[in-house]
Amino acid sequence: MNKDQLVIFDTTLRDGEQSPGASMTKDEKVRIAKMLEKMHVDVIEAGFAIASEGDFAAVRAVATAVKDATVCSLSRALEADIRRAAEAIQPANSGRIHTFIATSPIHMQHKLNMRPEQVIEQAVKAVKLARNLCADVEFSCEDAGRSEMDFLCRIVEAAIAAGARTINIPDTVGYAIPELYAEQIRQLIERVPNSDQAIFSVHCHNDLGLAVANSLAAVQAGARQVECTINGLGERAGNASLEEIVMAVRTRPDVFSVTTGIDPVHLVPTSRLVSTITGFAVQPNKAIVGKNAFAHESGIHQDGVLKHRETYEIMKAEDVGWHTNAIVLGKHSGRNAFRSRLQDLGVEFATEQELNHAFMLFKQLADKKHDIYDEDLQALVSDSRAHEASEVIQLVALEVQSKTGEIPLAEVVLSIRGQEVRTQASGSGPVDAVFKAIESQVNSGASLELYSVNAITSGTDSQGEVTVRLAHTGRLVNGLGADTDIVIASAKAYIHALNGLEANLERTHPQGSGI
Ligand SMILES: CC(=O)SCCNC(=O)CCNC(=O)[C@H](O)C(C)(C)COP(=O)(O)OP(=O)(O)OC[C@H]1O[C@@H](n2cnc3c(N)ncnc32)[C@H](O)[C@@H]1OP(=O)(O)O
Ligand SMILES: CC(C)C(=O)C(=O)O
Ligand SMILES: [Mg+2]
Prior knowledge:
This protein has 515 residues and is an alpha/beta fold. It contains 16 helices and 18 strands. The chain has 4 domains: 7-278, Aldolase class I (TIM Barrel), CATH 3.20.20; 293-323, no CATH class; 326-386, no CATH class; 389-503, Alpha-isopropylmalate synthase LeuA, regulatory domain (Double Stranded RNA Binding Domain, 2-Layer Sandwich), CATH 3.30.160. The protein has helices spanning 26-38, 53-65, 79-89, 105-112, 116-133, 149-162, 178-191, 211-220, 242-251, 267-278, 299-307, 335-344, 352-368, 374-386, 430-442, 486-508; strands at residues 4-5, 7-10, 43-47, 70-76, 95-102, 137-142, 166-171, 199-204, 225-228, 258-259, 295-296, 326-327, 393-401, 409-416, 419-426, 447-455, 464-472, 475-483. An 8-stranded parallel barrel has the order 2-3-4-5-6-7-8-9, surrounded by 8 helices. It has a 3-stranded antiparallel β-sheet with strand order 13-14-15. Helix 2 links the parallel strand 3 and strand 4 (70-76). Helix 5 packs parallel to helix 6 and helix 11 (299-307) packs across helix 12. It is elongated, with a radius of gyration of 33 Å.
C-alpha cells in the first residue's frame, strides 16, 4: 500500500506559548525550533508576529535559523496582521502565512460582531492579500468544531478559490467527539467542489482529553496535516500532543494509511527541552515521554518483559529517545526482576535461600521506601550478608525515647547465642544510648574508633548506611548497617562489628571475649 504523507505542523512556539506561564524568549524559541527541525517537523508555527515586538523578533529569528522546515506566523484576517506576518517570515527558506477568522455562530455574533457574509468576505480578502505576499497560505476556520456545515463548506470553498493551500478545521474549544469530528472532515472533503486543491488540516484542543483521538479520527477521514505541540502544551488544557500522534501512526500502520517524516528518536530530548524552558513538568504517566512510559514495577510485568519485551511493550523505548526501558524495583516486584537487577550489579546468590533472605529484606524496605535505587540494593545485600543467621549476637527489637530537654533512653532486645536478653541505658543521644545498652550486656571492652552515617540516596526516605569501627587488643573491626531508621542502622552496625570482634577473638583466644 502506498501511504500518504501526513504533514506534521508543530505549534509549540505559538499555541503552546499561549499556555498561561509558558512564555519563551527569542533564544529559547530558536533552541526549540532547531530541535524540531532536527526531528524533521514539516511546519513550525513560530509565533503571532503582530502580538508584540518580541514575538515578531522571535518569528524572524526562527525563520533565519531554520533551513529545512517551513516557518509560519499566525495572523488575524486583518491587513496589518498579514503584512507583519509576511515581514517576520521573510528570511525563511520556506515561509507560510497562517490567517484565520472565526466561523461559529457564537464567535461571529458575540466576538466579531459580524454577519456570516461579512466573515466570508473578510476571509477571502485576507487570503488574497496573504497570497500576494507569500506562496504558501493556510486558512483556519476558528471554532470550526461548533460551526454550521453549510457555512463551513461555503467559506472553505471561497478560501481555496482565493489561494489557500491548506485548510485548517480547528476544534478550538475541545468540544469535538472523534466519530462526529471525522464525519465533519469527511463531509467537507466530499462536499467542497475544489477540496482537491488543498490539504485538509486539523488542530484539536484537549478540553475533554480527546485532542489526540479527534486528530487521529480526522486523519482516517482524510485530513493530511495535524497541528500539534510537544508535550501537548497549549491554550487551556493544551493541544494534541505531537509525540502521541506520531507514535500512534507509526505503531499502527495497519490502521493509518499515512506516514510522517518525523525521526522519533528526538522525541524525548525535545520533550525535556520544552519542559525545561517552560517550567511545565511532564507528568510521569504521560505517553511516550513521561518517565514511567517504559517503566515496569509489578512482578508479573517485569517477569514478562525480562523474558520477552513485547509481552508488555508496544513500542521500543530506544526508538523515541530513551536510553532503554526500565525495570523499577518496588513493593510489587517479584524474585525474577530482583535477581536480574542484582546480577546486573554483579551480585550472584549462591543459594536460593540466600536469594530469599535478601528478597524478604527488599520487600520490607519497599514497604517503607518509595524508590529503591541500585545503591539501596547493594546496601541491602551487604547488610543481609553481614547479618547472617550464624551470628552470635542478633538485634531482635529496639525502642528509643528521645525528647527535647530530656536524656535519651534506649531499650534493646538482643539474642545472644540464641538467648534473648533485654537491656536499657541512657546516653547523650539516641545512638549513644543504644550503644551503651548493647555494651552493658556484651561487655566487649572494645573502644569505638569511628562512627559515620551516610545517606545512601537522596530524599528523607533514604536509607542511612552506618559504619562503626571497634578496636580491641590492637585489632580493628568494621561493622556495617543499613536501614531507613538511622538509629536501627547504627545498632545493626555496632552488632555487626561486635560479631566480627567475636570471630577474631575466637580465632586467637578460643575461650572468647566477654561476650
Ligand atoms: C484560537 C486562537 O488561538 S486565536 C490566537 C490567540 N492568540 C492571541 O490572541 C495572542 C496574540 N494576541 C495579541 O497579542 C492581541 O490580542 C492582538 C495584538 C492580536 C490584538 O490586540 P488588540 O488590538 O488589543 O485586540 P484585543 O485582543 O483586545 O481584541 C481582539 C480584536 O480582534 C478581533 N478579532 C479576533 N479574531 C479576529 C480575526 N481572526 N480576524 C479579525 N479580527 C479578529 C476581535 O473581534 C477584537 O476586535 P475589537 O477590538 O474590534 O473588538
Ligand atoms: C488559530 C487557530 C488555529 C487556533 O489556535 C485554534 O482555533 O485553536
Ligand atoms: Mg489553538
